[in-house]
Structure formats: C-alpha cells, structure tokens
Amino acid sequence: MSDLAFPADHSLPAERGFTADEIDTSRPHPARMYDYYLGGWDNYAIDREAADEVIRVHPQVRDSARANRAFMQRAVRDAAGAGIRQFLDLGTGIPTSPNTHEVARESAPDARVVYADNDPIVATHAGARLTNAPGTGFVLGDVRAPAKLLADPEVRSLIDFDRPVAVLLVAVLHFVRDDEDPAGLVAALAEALPAGSRLILSHATGEPYEAYAEGRTDEVARDGVLNVYKNTTATLSLRDRAAVERLFGPFRLQEPGVVRVPLWRPDGPLPTPEEINNTIFYGGVGIKE
Length: 289
Fold this sequence. Notes:
Shape: globular
Low-confidence stretches: 1-20
Radius of gyration: 18 Å
C-alpha cells in the first residue's frame, strides 16, 4: 500500500476583462485536476487524463482531496467562531460547495469573502457560485504577485485591512517553487494584515506519517505524481513538515500545530494510521500577533 495519496463549453463574462483565448487547454491545470479528484465536472479531457494518471499511480488521491477540503471547512468555522468576519481565499480553485463564504456564514452571516485564482475557468463560475450573494467578490489574480492582488479594487471594497482577516492558502503553495520564495509571499501578505489575523494553510508532502510504523515513502508513486505535474501549468513541490512550518513565518501556530489534515481539530472519528499515512496534506492555522 502506497503512503502517498496525491495529492463542455464555458462562456466568459466580458466584464471580467478576459477572453476565451486566455484559457490554456493545451496543458492540464492543477485546479481543474483537483476539481476532478473531488468529483466535479468543470474540467477538460486533458485535465482528466492527467488526473487519471495520478489516480493510477496513487489511488488514494481522492481521499486526500476530500480530507483537505474538510480541513479547510473546520478551520474556517474555527476562525468565524473566534470572531473573524473577513476572509481572503487565495487560489480558491473550482468552486465546490460548501465554499468559504457558505461555511463562514453558518455562524457569521455578516462574513465578507474575496476569492482569488489565476485560472480564468474559475472566474467563469464565480458569478453563479461564489459572488451571487452580498459581501462576496472574486479577483483574477496570482498569489505570486501579492501586492497587486491586495491592491485590487474588489479586494479593497470588501476587506478592511484595519480589522483581522483570515487568509486561506489551501493546497496552493506546493505549486510555488523554491526560487519563487513561498515564505516571502506569505511574509508579504502578513505585512498587510493587522494583529489577530489568521493564516489557514495546507501543503502536500512526500513524508510518511510518523505514527504509522509501516510508513515509508513510496518513491515510485511519488515520482509518478511529480512527473504528471511537470506537464501541467504549475509544477508540484513536495515539502516536509519542517519546511511547511517555516512557511508560517510571522504567524504563531495554533494547537495542534502542523499536522496531517485529518488530525487538525477533528470533529468526527479519526481515520486509521494507515489512512492518515495515505493523506499527504499537512495543515495548520497561524495567528499574527
């Protein structure tokens, strides 16, 4: 059993400022592959072919994707329960209900949410699924350009940077290469945030789960997955827990720290150690002091 679980026509509204030609369908896109892992339909044949190859070499990828999504929902509920009323969801991916604003508004009906992604396909669905309620917005932008993203008028119209903000980087930074300085991007985001703000982050790893005695890195599965992502629009960079912890920078980690996502404040029965071993996402939440 491997211990790595890796991780139609669309009309484009003119007001979003881009055209159908800007959608790259020549290569698989990680966001559309992730949508396929979650059972969605907002993807192209080339995305499905790449995702199927990942599933072939590591069949548990869909379980990992679902566990990661559940972590996001628990972390958002925790933030809303602690009084956070503003959320900035970066690299949000194809909308999958319940989305961030739906989760936050379970306990905070006044929560405001801005979504951002660099894939125009995501924007085609934003109006129907993400921004069809007051207090939500969408920005076509890239986490690799944090200053530009934070200065966007849509962000500034909904997010008050004098009040705490929860920033989500869920399954995003493993698509940022080391030479693109993912820790520096987090630091740039943190600089714009007031004390009390939160960072909700998850990240793929190639490490075995330390509490599973039979755990080991399945190098064949790992390399097979990495090879698939070499041909997508964003290569995959697996990092160990220590490297993921460093990404939090100025954010103080909350208990239980950086852990496999099913172990972050679970609200139901825990998976077995082998199942946790097969869930390749680390997750954590930090607070800016």
